[in-house]
């Protein structure tokens, strides 16, 4: 028996079903039925059964490269390395050389995890990271669309009010 699902995991499963529906792998009836089952699911095993006949989501090379580019922070790495260098210089001039060896793990961490130095396979994003990035981008796009819709609605309301005021002025001016 699997673990209990969170609301966030249910939402992710529904989003994944939506992607499969959009790609034509599910009919509307199948999509609606599976979404209903996800909503009623208690454990991850119940949700996993709904995806058995569907392929795992794939990611484009450009998505992977974009994630890798966004996750690399060379400026922060250079800053961190310069701070470590300053610490080593200070320790060397004061004679506290014992602390210099403590900086080696810090340097390795900065090189590997901040600057992403090393073979590409070390820094390949997981499917979960890529999915999070997709969801983040979709959420951002939805917010932008909602803002544009709101602006458009406000502009229409202004135009409608102006027309109504113009009609009222014309009506009152004819008397």
TrEMBL record:
Chain ranges of the DUF1707 domain: 4-55
Transmembrane segments: 76-93, 99-118
Entry annotated with the keyword Transmembrane: yes
UniProt entry keywords in alphabetical sequence: Membrane, Transmembrane, Transmembrane helix
Name of this chain's protein: DUF1707 domain-containing protein
């Amino acid at each position: 028996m699997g673990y209990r699902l969170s609301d966030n995991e249910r939402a992710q499963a529904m989003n994944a079903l939506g992607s499969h529906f959009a790609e034509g792998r599910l009919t509307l009836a199948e999509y609606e039925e599976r979404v209903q089952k996800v909503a009623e699911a208690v454990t991850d095993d119940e949700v996993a059964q709904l995806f058995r006949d569907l392929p795992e989501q794939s990611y484009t090379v450009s998505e992977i490269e974009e994630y890798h580019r966004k996750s690399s922070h060379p400026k922060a790495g250079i800053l961190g390395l310069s701070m470590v260098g300053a610490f080593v210089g200070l320790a060397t001039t004061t004679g506290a050389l014992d602390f210099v060896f403590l900086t080696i793990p810090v340097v390795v961490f900065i090189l590997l995890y901040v600057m992403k130095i090393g073979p590409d396979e070390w820094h390949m994003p997981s499917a979960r990271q890529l999915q999070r990035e997709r969801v983040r981008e979709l959420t951002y796009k939805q917010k932008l669309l909602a803002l544009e819709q709101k602006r458009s609605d406000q502009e229409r309301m202004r135009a409608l009010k102006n027309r109504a005021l113009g009609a009222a002025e014309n009506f009152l001016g004819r008397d």
